[in-house]
Amino acid sequence: MNALALSVLPRPMRLLQRYDDGEDARHFTFQLEDIRAEDAGMMPGQFFMLVLPGCGEAPFTYVSRPDDQGRFSALIRRMGKLTEALFELQPGEVLGYRGPFGQGWPRFYGKQRILAVAGGCGLAPLAGFIEDVARTRSGTHLQVIYGARHVGARVLSRERARWSGALPLIETLDQAGPGHRQGTPLAHFDTVFGQAPPDAVLCCGPEVLMEAAARECLGRGLRADQIWLSVERRMHCGVGLCGHCYVGDSYACRDGPTYRYDRYRELLRRSGCARELDRGELRHC
Ligand SMILES: Cc1cc2nc3c(=O)[nH]c(=O)nc-3n(C[C@H](O)[C@H](O)[C@H](O)COP(=O)(O)OP(=O)(O)OC[C@H]3O[C@@H](n4cnc5c(N)ncnc54)[C@H](O)[C@@H]3O)c2cc1C
Ligand code: FES
């Protein structure tokens, strides 16, 4: 069987553990029963399709990559039919998996300064990248800004506690009480850019946040090819066959979900979305 045929066939995966981690969000640990070489090679920012018999499939990003036993984790927010059913599953139950799919975040080598900007559940696709830098101490200087609406809406509590000891992490809330920073992630760009401008910016969250963050970076002198976004589109096949996930004339499942900002703008512009781009209404493109 060829690689494409293999990638559309679900493999069995067992739910090992889960715990609540944020508002209507849960941290899940799964275990693949049939491990393949590509699982260990998964890049942070890639995604997998979770298959629930009777409910369908949906894409989710990895919080941690599959280990040598096939165990990995994901942060999943309750949204509709599939995630409602997933939240009802008990440890030990078997579901389906396809992946890994798409393009992950770029790799950085040497002493580069990277800024990661995340909003809400958008921290999940950046988690693997942050974890790699925090663990390997490769010389990359990573600064993270994480914004959420309020204290209870923050996700990945255990990971944030671990990262805060290893790298600079600014947490900020739209509605902050005493002892918390106030404002959107953009409110803290002065602090970060005042130290030294980053060499690259990775951004994931609501599309309005990503677009505003990218514009703010451009306004502060960064080039569009120094900025990366992770976009969310409706996905079905996950492998460039069904055409449900267009970004311009590219497939977000295959060519994304991470896009360099100059390429992303060009794709949208070519597909006639220049006006939406200027208004920050990219979801309609
Ligand atoms: C590449 C990628 C990675 C993702 N990673 C994660 C993750 O790590 N954690 C997580 O919680 N979610 C993630 N998502 C979103 C997740 O796939 C959806 O929330 C999921 O499909 C919901 O399924 P459902 O059947 O429970 O809800 P549905 O009934 O399908 O949807 C509930 C509501 O959400 C809207 N919706 C669902 N999916 C999308 C979408 N892709 N774009 C716009 N609106 C949508 C629907 O229109 C509806 O209003 C990711 C999406 C993509 C494309
Ligand atoms: S999800 Fe089918 S082409 Fe992208």
Structure description:
With 285 residues, the chain is an alpha/beta fold. It folds into two domains: 9-101, Beta Barrel (Elongation Factor Tu (Ef-tu), domain 3), CATH 2.40.30.10; 113-284, Rossmann fold. Helices cover 28% and strands 29% of the residues. The strands form three sheets. It has a seven-stranded mixed sheet with strand order 10-9-8-7-11-12-15, with helices on both faces. A six-stranded antiparallel sheet has the order 4-3-6-1-2-5, covered by helices on one side. It has a two-stranded antiparallel ribbon with strand order 13-14. The chain starts with a helix and ends in a 6-residue tail after the last helix. The relative contact order is 0.13. The model has no long low-confidence stretch (mean pLDDT 91). Residues 235-238, 240-245, 251, 253 line the site of FE2/S2 (inorganic) cluster (FES). FE2/S2 (inorganic) cluster binds next to loops.
